[in-house]
Amino acid sequence: MLRKLSKEISECYRLAEQARAWAEEAADPRTPRDLLLVERSWLILAQSYEHSEAVTLFTNTRRRANGR
């Protein structure tokens, strides 16, 4: 499961970076604002996955320490 989350996290950061690049290249002055919101959403999702991964690692470590 953790490997899958790590792939998801990487993909979120890649998509955030792509949205930022598109925002910087946009011709319409309204477009960058929308694309920066997309970037922010991808970053929030990546952080959520990172938090979930950290909780899973902590839980698994505690279970092993307790002999479960």
- Domain count: the total is 1
Number of strands: 0
Helix content: over 70%
Largest sheet: none
Q: Given the structure, what is the number of helices?
A: 2
What does the secondary structure layout of this molecule look like, with pairings?
Layout: H1 2-25, H2 31-65
What does this entry look like structurally?
- The two termini are 18 Å apart.
- The model has no long low-confidence stretch (mean pLDDT 92).
- The protein has helices at 2-25, 31-65.
- The protein is built from 2 helices and no strands.
- The chain is rod-shaped and about 60 Å long.
- The chain has one domain (2-65).
- With 68 residues, the protein is an all-alpha fold.
Label this structure with key terms:
rod-shaped; mainly alpha; 2 helices; single chain; 87% helix; 68 residues
Task: Describe what is shown at a glance.
The chain is an all-alpha fold. It has two helices and no strands.
